[in-house]
Amino acid sequence: MPALNSALRRLTTPALLALALSTAGTSYADGVRTIKIATAAESKPLSWGAIGVEPQGYEPDVLKAINAKLPQYKFKMEGAADIAQETGLATGKYDMATGGYYKAPARLKQFLIPDSPIGASLMKIYSRKESPINEMKDLVGKNIVPVTAGGGVYKFVTQWQQAHPGENVTVRASSAGVPYPDRLKEIQGGKYDALILPSNLGEQTVIDNQKLSIATSEPVAVNNTYVMIHKSEKNKALSEDVNKALKELKDDGTLDKLSRKWFGENVSKYMK
After folding, report:
1. For residue 5, how many other CB atoms are within 10 A of its CB?
2. DSSP helix/strand/coil, 63
3. Residues whose CB is less than 8 angstroms from the CB of residue 183 and which lie 6 or more positions away in sequence, other chains included
4. Which of 35, 88, 104, 250 could form a disulfide with 95 if both were Cys (CB 3.0 to 4.6 A apart)?
């Protein structure tokens, strides 16, 4: 029996040492938590890149800057369709999602949303330079490009009209998915007088590259955009960490730099 115990000790001691080393390695690895993030797949320059393609754009760059400030996490991004983003976030498939999201009561109930915004959506009016349209009241009697039924632009125009009943701005709803570069050409060609869109879709790049004679108004509406996080107990710390990092990135000028890189203007100055 003593011989057997001695043999077991000889076998067990190296095994315990290996286990200890293995556990130490695992503990170190577990100290860095992987965060799976859904980014917009087809919203250049805000964010684009389908599954299997490295996401690019303003929001992916901001996420990389956040991750650099939070070494306790490893951000893993993948592009996803709009409907798949919120569904995946609700089910826990994703830990975070970005896609130009506004705060809304339903989202605040369903997700964790840091107070510090990741960006801002600037609603602007695009019109011909020879007859520039600078504000919403200038659209009275104008032929406006039809907007997506139920979309953000439609809701904005409808709410503006309700708040200004004496100004008759007519906007038609449409389900036709005509790309906005083609819409800008239709403005220049005279088919329509004006186009209302958030400016973070790359309109200015199209105008510059195609040398279109299109004027851009100052923002007629500004909405902060936010990171959304899967609602769970363990993600409360993640939400607080992301909130702190975003505030620092705004204060140190990083958001200004990245918005100029991708949108050609300082979007961060409009963040409320």
Report:
1. 9
2. helix
3. 145, 192, 195
4. 35
Cα–Cα dist 37/227, whole Å? 10
Query: Tokens for 45?
Result: 């320059």
Mapped onto helix, strand or coil, the DSSP state of residue 54 is coil
CA–CA gap between residue 269 and residue 256 (Å, rounded): 8
pLDDT confidence of residue 15? 42
The residue type at 131: S
pLDDT lower than 50: segments of the chain: 1-28
Residue type, 80: A
Residue 36 tokens read as 């799976």
Judge whether 70 and 241 are in contact, CB under 8 Å.
yes
Query: Which parts of the chain fold into alpha helices (H)?
Result: 2-30, 58-69, 82-91, 105-110, 152-163, 180-189, 203-209, 235-251, 254-263
* CA triple 250-255-260, angle to 5 deg: 145
Structure tokens at 194: 């004006």
- pLDDT (0 to 100) of residue 23: 35
pTM above 0.85, yes or no: no
Give residue 254's identity as a one-letter amino acid code: T
Burial (0-12, 13-18, 19+ Cβ within 10 Å), 185: middle
Region for residue 178 given its phi and psi (left: phi exceeds 0; alpha: psi -120 to 50; beta: otherwise): beta
Q: Tokens for 257, please give them.
A: 């730099």
- CA 120-124-125 angle, 5° bins: 170
